[in-house]
Amino acid sequence: MLTDKKIARCDILVIGGGPAGLMAARKAAQKGVKTLLIEKGKQFGLKVCGEAVSTATFAEAEVPPSQNFICGEEIDRVLVYAPEEEKKVEICAGSIGYDGGYILNKRAFLEEMARLAFQAGAEVWTEAVANQLLRHNGLFRCVVATNKGEQLVEAKIVIGCDGVNSLVARRSFNRKGYRVIPCVQYQMDNCHLIDKRTLEMFVGNNVAPDGYVWIFPKGKGLANVGLGTQGAPARRCLDRFIKTHPHRFKKARVLKMGAAPVPIGGQVEEIVQDGLMLCGDAAGQVIPLTGAGIHSSIAAGKIAGEVAAEALLEGNTSREKLSAYPQQFNKVWGKRISDSLKAQQVITKLSDRELNRLADILIGQDIVDLANGFNLVSVGLKLLKYPTFAGKIARRLLEKQGR
Predict the structure, then answer these.
(1) Residues near 349 by Cβ (< 8 Å), separated by ≥ 6?
(2) Which three-class secondary structure state does DSSP give residue 178?
(3) 309-313, long-range: CB within 8 Å, 24+ apart, which pairs?
(4) Is CB count within 10 Å lower at the N or C end of the chain?
(5) C-alpha 254: how far from its chain's center?
(6) Per CATH, the architecture of 4-48+107-177+266-322 is what?
(7) How far apart are CA 249 and CA 218, in angstroms?
(8) If we measure between CA atoms, which residue out of 42, 1, 47 comes closest to residue 20?
(9) What is the pLDDT along the chain (403 residues), one digit of tens a residue?
(10) What are the residues whose beta carbons fall under 8 Å from the beta carbon of 275, sequence distance 6 or more?
């Protein structure tokens, strides 16, 4: 039996060492509150991920880009292929006012974030699994399984950054509408790539129903080749894609494989309770149409960690006080996530014929707007100028926007 003598006490317990959790722990510790982060893995960054980020992500994370965790060259172009692959939309970063991005070594990047959290004063445990979370005399007690046995942790605030199967969410939050898409990814070598600075994405109901395939170059002949799909077994679809593209993969080898669910249902309605907060995948803070979540999760963790620390310093951990976190996050990310969800709900219902025609009409800026929840009305109004099928899509987009 665990006794009070065996309790590890902290002000803030952060569960989960992904981008959101590591950022939350660092920002909380910087304000001088006692912060403990627990991560179930032996290492950080084990979850499968395409690893593509914009340069703005580094500014959000307050981590300068470094060759220690950047793979290959700067990415400055994206090609999105229609089901008829000779039809494609090109997105050039410079032409639409973006600085481009990089492919991460996510494990190394998160190790750097963990180092910064520790440097700020946070205590960090790996191989530590949160098994129970209970309220006790106005505080939270979490039973944590470690490689040294069970440990009872007591905290005033708990920030749940513990992913799709979040213990914090299951214990205290209603995640109505929370949906995930299964994703599988191979790291491969000897792929035939367009070039080292271009991301490639493939859509179509015969490729990845209600999802897409990605080929992201990592330098030194490596690439992340992955797929997310709602309508068929993910690995079977990815293997079929590789088999039907022999000019790309004839000499390629699979070096390692990973799989993970990614939330695509948008941000859940409730992400704070008295003394409790949700961040990152646990809160559905992922861009639904693309599945991108590193940048948004870092932004959420930064705000949550700061708000939690300020609440403790003021002696008020109520839901009302902690609601400053979603209020601040939603000013930048709330509409982006909800509008991307609306675009996803329209795009995933299109036939391959409609997707092919869409590739003839849209330009790179339009794809960026749809994917990121920007200017849906502008895209919808543009499509209204085209024949019947495009008008149908336009009407769906405008209806989603209340037009």
Answers:
(1) 396
(2) coil
(3) 309/11, 309/12, 309/27, 309/28, 309/30, 309/31, 309/32, 309/33, 310/31, 311/157, 312/11, 312/12, 312/33, 312/156, 312/157, 313/31, 313/32, 313/33
(4) N
(5) 24
(6) 3-Layer(bba) Sandwich (3.50)
(7) 16
(8) 47
(9) 445 558 899 999 999 999 999 999 999 999 999 999 999 999 998 888 889 999 999 999 999 999 999 998 899 989 999 999 999 998 887 665 567 899 999 999 999 999 999 999 999 999 999 999 999 888 999 999 998 899 999 999 999 999 999 999 999 999 998 999 999 999 999 999 988 999 999 999 999 998 999 999 998 889 999 999 987 899 999 999 999 999 999 999 999 999 999 999 999 999 999 999 999 999 999 999 888 999 999 999 999 999 999 999 999 999 999 999 999 999 999 999 998 898 888 888 888 998 998 888 887 888 877 777 666 667 776 676 666 556 666 666 667 666 5
(10) 140, 156, 157, 158, 317, 322
**Structural domain boundaries of the chain?**
4-48+107-177+266-322, 72-101+180-263, 340-400
Instruction: Count how many residues are written for the chain.
Output: 403
Architecture of domain 72-101+180-263: 2-Layer Sandwich (3.30)
User: Tokens 């709602």, residue?
Assistant: 230
